[in-house]
Specification:
mainly alpha, globular
Length: 277
């Protein structure tokens, strides 16, 4: 009976995975189609990838996407790390409500975040005399990336021994020296994971970018959406394949790093148990 249930569970999971990833597999396959048909595969070719990189609009949006993603990841990582240290230093009665507020943007619908930021930028622009563009797009990405960085760094801070910072200061370190030589090395895995997560979320975002970019700057996701309003060519398949491969690679890196850190933690715990015995 258990064997039948286990087999049924495997088949059920396989069907779910097939349902989720079959459209992506078809998209990837037809990105290498020699013809322009979206239903008949006429032969293997890299023609549409060559066409993609000759498209000036796509190249400009690629530059915008990479610039926004890298800048927002770096700035959000710095802000999120210092915010995490601030939360960690607070009393529990203040820390817990603020962390709950920090989680709201992650649980909130992207459409709500995008519309609210759009209205904010439009109101501020009417007063200060600017319009939506690269700057507003960057601010929006930093806004929704910071909570993910805090979520990655806080667990590492909870594992940190508070007495290490006090010991470093007793030995003559200033607070900033203790921060760089004691705190940062201990929480570095969380910082790196937060930065990778921020970059992944930023490069994959569409809804918030659509509402905050304006006409001055467009990300790849917004460009793909504008291309679908016209005749859809396999060039979109090639672009979507590259985006999927980039995000998948980053997610694999994040998961591999997390697995390696867990192995190191378990190995350290086993070594500690052996020495204590």
């Amino acid at each position: 009976m258990k064997k039948i249930g286990s087999t049924f569970g495997r088949v059920y999971m396989a069907l779910i995975m097939l349902f989720l990833y079959a459209p992506i597999i078809v998209l990837i396959v037809f990105s290498f189609n020699a013809g322009n048909s979206r239903s008949i595969f006429t032969g293997f070719s890299l023609h549409w990838y060559a066409e993609l990189f000759r498209d000036s609009m796509v190249l400009e949006s690629l530059y915008t996407t990479l610039a926004v993603s890298l800048l927002s990841a770096v700035i959000a990582t710095a802000l999120g790390t210092f915010a995490s240290i601030g939360f960690y230093s607070m009393k529990k009665r203040w820390r817990e409500p603020l962390l709950a507020i920090n989680n709201i943007p992650m649980m909130n619908a992207d459409i709500v975040t995008g519309v609210s930021l759009c209205l904010l930028f439009v109101a501020a622009g009417s007063i200060l005399g600017f319009s939506n563009g690269f700057a507003t797009l960057l601010i929006a990405h930093i806004t929704f990336n910071v909570p993910y960085v805090i979520l990655s760094v806080m667990p590492k801070l909870r594992q940190l021994d508070r007495h290490l910072v006090d010991a470093a200061q007793d030995l003559g370190c200033t607070w900033m020296q203790a921060f760089w030589k004691v705190i940062v090395p201990e929480i570095r895995p969380g910082i790196v994971n937060g930065a990778l997560m921020a970059f992944t979320m930023s490069i994959d975002d569409f809804i918030i970018s659509y509402f905050t970019a304006g006409t001055g700057a467009q990300t790849l996701a917004v460009t793909i959406y504008s291309m679908t309003k016209k005749r859809v060519t396999p060039e979109i398949n090639a672009l979507s394949t590259l985006l999927f491969a980039t995000v998948l690679t980053l997610l694999i890196v994040v998961n591999v790093r997390s697995a390696q850190q867990e192995k190191k933690r378990l190995k350290a715990e086993r070594a500690l148990r052996k020495t204590s015995v």
